[in-house]
Amino acid sequence: MGETAVLTYQVTNLPSEGVTLKGSVPFAAVDIDADERFSYPQPLFYELKLTPLGPDVLVTGKLHAVIGCVCDRCDGIGDLAVATDDVCHRYKNVIGQVLDLTADIREDILVVFPHRYLCSESCQGICPGCGQNLNQAPCRCGDKKANAAKGPNPWSALDNLKL
Question: Is the pLDDT of residue 57 over 50?
């Protein structure tokens, strides 16, 4: 199958060897919208096999996509490939019905989204003093950062507590 807008399949006359569904859907079709951390320049690609198990259907397969992510250190935007090849769902008593895979496919791809994203392992981040992206240029606040590190310790008041 080609590109489709939804992940549904009418489960009638499913051959014993099963059927393979290949295609892509926009992320919005699986209820995943862009936000401040993630964007979706490409659709979600899938390859799913539907195999009959008596009155049940077993769905196995793979998902992959490229998503845009905001770096947690420098706020730069980079692309990240996400994929899973362990999609596996059993749907009970669905012969003769329309099988909607959307919610389960949504969960499968969300599980592989990064909790933390770095544009590179060597990302230097942003200077807390002047806000300069240290990957692009050196810090503009010079020795202020070093002097701030030598300044008063905000935790020193805790040293005077008598416990």
Answer: yes
Q: What is the pTM (predicted TM-score) of this model?
A: 0.75
pLDDT band at 149 (very low <50, low <70, confident <90, very high): low
What are the Cα distances from residue 84, in Å, to 20, 34, 110, 111, 118?
Answer: 17, 20, 10, 9, 20
CA distance 43 to 40: 7
Please tell me the predicted confidence (pLDDT) of residue 145: 47
Report residue 101 as tokens: 């895979």
* First and final C-alpha spacing in the chain: 70
Positive or negative, the Cα torsion across 30, 32, 33, 39? Answer: negative
Cα–Cα dist 159/69, whole Å: 42
Residues 6+ apart with CB under 8 A from 83: 62, 63, 64, 65, 112
Domain boundaries, the chain: 8-120, 122-152
Tokens encoding 43:
């659709």
